[in-house]
Amino acid sequence: MTTDVLVVGIGGQGVMTAAEAIARAALEAGYEASKTEVTGMSQRGGVVCSQVRIGERIEASEIRPGTARLLIAFEAAEGLRWSHYLAPDGCALLDSWRAVPPVVSSGVHQYPADPAAELRAAGRQVREIEARGTAERLGDARLANSVMLGAAAASLPFPEQALREQVLRRFAGGELAARNAAAFDAGRVLAA
Amino acid sequence: MSAMLPASARSTTRREFLSGNQAAARGAWEAGVEVAAAYPGTPSTEILETLAELPGVYAEWSTNEKVALEVALGASMTGRRAITAMKHVGLNVAADSLMTMGLVGVKAGLVIAVSDDIGFSSSQNEQDSRFWGRFVHLPVLEPADAAEAYAMAREAFVLSERHQVPVLLRLTTRVSHVKRTLHTGEREAPDPSRHGYRRDVERWIITPNHVGKRLELRAQRDAALAEEAAASSWNVLEPGTDRTVGFVVSGAAYHAVREAFPRAPVLKLGFSHPLPVSLAHRLAATVDRIVVVEESEPVAETELKAAGIAVHGKDVLPSQGEMTAPVLERAVERLLGRAPASVAGMPKPRPVFPRPPTLCAGCPYMGVYFWLGQLKNAIICGDIGCYTLGCGEPWNAMDSIISMGASLGVAHGMAKAFASDAAAKPVLAVIGDSTFLHTGMPALANITYQGGNVTVLLLDNRATAMTGGQDNPGTGHRLDGTSAPRLDFAKLVEALGVRPERVRVADPYELPTFFKVLREEMKAPEPSVIITTRPCVLSRDFEHRRPLSVRDEQCNGCARCLDVGCPAITVRRRERQERASGKVVDLAWVRIERALCTGCDLCAKACARGAIVAS
What we know:
The complex is a heterodimer. By secondary structure, chain A is an alpha/beta fold. Chain A has eight helices and six strands. Chain A has a single domain, classed as Pyruvate-ferredoxin oxidoreductase, PFOR, domain III (Pyruvate-ferredoxin Oxidoreductase, domain 3, 3-Layer(aba) Sandwich), CATH 3.40.920.10. By secondary structure, chain B is an alpha/beta fold. Chain B folds into four domains: 225 residues, Thiamin diphosphate (ThDP)-binding fold, Pyr/PP domains (Rossmann fold, 3-Layer(aba) Sandwich), CATH 3.40.50; 105 residues, Rossmann fold; 168 residues, 3-Layer(aba) Sandwich (Rossmann fold); 67 residues, no CATH class. Chain B has a seven-stranded mixed β-sheet with strand order 3-2-4-5-7-6-12, sandwiched between helices. In chain B, strands 14-15-16-18-17 form a five-stranded parallel β-sheet, with helices on both faces. A four-stranded mixed β-sheet of chain B has the order 9-11-10-13, sandwiched between helices. The relative contact order of chain B is 0.08. Classes of the chains: A alpha/beta, B alpha/beta. Chains A and B meet through helix 1, strand 2, helix 2 and helix 3 of A and strand 1, strand 8, helix 11 and strand 20 of B.
């Protein structure tokens, strides 16, 4: 059995970094893991998805639709976009923050009215995490990444502390580490 | 996973989590590679980036893939192990020298790591590089994952030296860009006894009188390689208990086969050319039917059929995209005439608006496209780079994108063909600094030589931006960070035959001035080149200024600022108004995202009411 996790968002949100932290925490906890970085031209504001598989043994690195345990979405509509990957009893962690691209603000496309409600209506377990808002209150929108990881920590097959250490390892102590630790812990509270 | 560790690495192994590109670089480094040359291109770029960080390797971003391959050959001729890396379409550019290298071969080990963009996430096509193995008579190694990319890269140099032939290490996006665990070892010290150059005119001078002998040697080499491939431990016949379907598979699709059909007998191809047909015969004897799973062309399938083995392949499998487990299940269900159970139960995606890639906030190219998007009566031939995005919203300012450097040649052909046409339109070519140096220059020499009339926009942003901002001869820096002479594009295009009066250097942030220059050069009845001066916003040369904001009381909602196409400008409110004249206009009120804005001033210059100011 593998634990399959999708981390999704848009270019610049640190989706790859977050997925890397999850995979490395899993490896240190003694699991095998794979992580996809199949991104295309997504660094320029496009759709980003990283698939992390955790288990005793990993064959294919791509997650099969309908089988993921956890969907970590850094943006509301992106959560909806990838929701078909969730297993029937899987869980979506959704930052309710919205990134509205020009194709929507110009009126060519519609932003989904309420992504979380739509997922619930489809029978999904959804936890709305106000990651971006929390991060802004902590002084930096970029901390949303650590808030979301904190919110996800309890849903992964290894101790929460392992992920926290992995996140903080990127910052050699000091102010940034302290702020990310606060963000991570705030995320844990939001998901509790 | 089936990674086999070279004996020399087994003693001091370290478990690491690497992408296939990082792993291939690591394997090459451990094999004692001394020279690495590449041109960046997704999904291959990180191979050279990784090697550049490792000690004992001379690494360079060459000006194109052909040059990179030739650099690797030169190094090999002096007895240094060498590697070149490129994306699939890059090998098309290198093909001329590659064909000769199939004849003259190599001295020290030479590996060509080529990564095919299966699923074409960032390419103009999907292309199967394994054909080059057949065309040029090269051995092809196909890793299924990062661990194999590492181990194969390490072994490839020995294989290359044993047969004096370049080895094609064929990667795909799913190998290059997926991280997996593997055990790395120590670097093997380059062997000094390999070093040294010996003149060998019958070999390295490929005049017609030397070709016959080389062709004979190549035929001998083909036979030796076929023998080695048939016995290679990279080609494994994995037994299985379910004989309904057996699989022949190579590359990342191997894991998809194992995931979907854990009990099936499988011939896993790693050393896939020359194709070990004898193993396929053995598989055929143990199963009811065989499905050949390949990305993307039916290469092995065709050869197995020619060898008299009845196999299925592209008759049931898609001819494009990745061969994932659900794709394979669907194909096998169809083949066996079963109800497609696995597919019926698979959840469908909920369609959500697209997020097409955009230029960065403050990108100087927006100043160019602001005007190109308003040209109603011109043809614009585009090229490969960030400026390719000019084909999209809100500019829609492009008529063609073909391949690296093609903008100038295509533009010239159109302009010449139009010349006597009453409905002739001005023709422009848009090309970036790195792409111009890659394959644009010969086409400009052709335009001036033939007396053509193309207005060339040479967008010099001092970076190979689309692939991550690599350096090139126009940036003034090398891969190792040292300073390099910065190529002077104005002098260069002048030397290529553009009259000095028609070489214009223009600042794309100065909208009115830029338009004036553009109009003048489009009117000129001869070739001209407009060189833009502003650096990529992600480059070291870019200067961020104070972000801008909108003075709402000044804004009349005209939405002219949206024509800039900057992602930092978002619409707050839209309104449709009927003017006194009866004309209906769409208005939009915007705000500027402080966090994104670079203060480039483009939108402020586009605003006729002075409503956008530094905040």
